[in-house]
């Protein structure tokens, strides 16, 4: 039995082994792509997790803090600062490449400035800063050049090797499901609240 594939982004397959009497998932057989997704959850910034789970009715005070920053008037924010640096933080490169969560929001890039005269190599993030040499305002924008992406060893990428060990047991029901965007967000929420994540995500009605 297979669930409908999620329309948003890619989906990966999981083979669940279910104890039908206890109505719980005993374990899942998964591939490298699913394991990489689960491991990279640990790399997600808190603000990214909150924005993903806001529609899931999160408990606690962190969603309120997120909303407070989101609704903060720009007049209270320091010059050359942007609320999106907190609300949409930079996601680690390995995690941003995971299609399940569609982390497509581009974080706000920080701007840097230098003196317009060729008298110093000093750099600042506030264009009101005076050059310590000529005392002129450091208003010339400096172009930041990002380093090249780190090349993964081998061709697989991700976090774990593409080796899968399968387990077979008697008296179990086998069910193949897809892990797409909706399931990934539900799994993320359940992992913060429960120790029976697979059962809650894939067996709950």
Task: Characterise the protein shown here.
With 205 residues, the protein is α+β, with helices and mostly antiparallel strands. 25% of the residues lie in helices and 14% in strands. The protein has two domains: 12-108 and 151-202, no CATH class; 110-143, no CATH class. It contains seven helices and five strands. The strands form two sheets. It has a three-stranded antiparallel β-sheet. The chain is elongated. Residues 1-9 have low confidence and may be disordered. InterPro entries: DUF674. It comes from Sesamum alatum.
Keywords:
205 residues; 14% strand; 2 domains; alpha+beta; 3-stranded antiparallel beta sheet
Q: Helix fraction?
A: 25-40%
One letter per element, helices H and strands E, the order comes to: EEHHHHHEEEHH
User: Span from first to last CA?
Assistant: 15 Å
Low-confidence stretches: 1-9
Quote the beta fraction. 5-15%
User: Could you give the count of β-strands?
Assistant: 5
Q: Largest sheet, order of strands side by side?
A: 2-1-5
In one word, what is the shape? elongated
Average pLDDT figure? 75
Number of domains: 2
What Rg do the Cα atoms give? 23 Å
Q: How many H/I helical runs? A: 7
Pfam families: DUF674
InterPro entries: DUF674
Protein name: DUF674 domain-containing protein
């Amino acid at each position: 039995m297979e669930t409908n594939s999620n329309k948003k982004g890619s989906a990966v397959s999981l083979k669940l082994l279910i104890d039908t009497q206890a109505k719980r998932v005993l374990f899942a057989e998964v591939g490298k792509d699913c394991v990489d997704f689960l491991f990279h959850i640990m790399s997600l910034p808190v603000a990214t997790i909150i924005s993903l789970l806001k529609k899931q009715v999160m408990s606690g005070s962190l969603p309120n803090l997120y909303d407070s920053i989101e609704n903060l008037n720009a007049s209270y924010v320091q010059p050359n600062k942007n609320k999106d640096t907190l609300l949409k933080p930079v996601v680690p490169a390995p995690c941003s490449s995971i299609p399940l969560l569609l982390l497509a929001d581009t974080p706000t890039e920080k701007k840097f400035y230098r003196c317009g005269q060729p008298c110093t190599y000093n750099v600042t993030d506030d264009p009101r800063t005076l050059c310590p040499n000529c005392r002129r305002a450091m208003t010339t924008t400096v172009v930041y050049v990002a380093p090249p992406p780190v090349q993964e060893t081998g061709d697989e990428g991700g976090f774990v090797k593409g080796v899968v060990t399968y387990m077979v047991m008697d008296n179990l029901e086998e069910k193949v499901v897809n892990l797409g965007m909706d399931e990934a967000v539900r799994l993320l929420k359940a992992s913060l609240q429960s120790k029976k994540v697979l059962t809650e995500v894939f067996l709950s009605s």
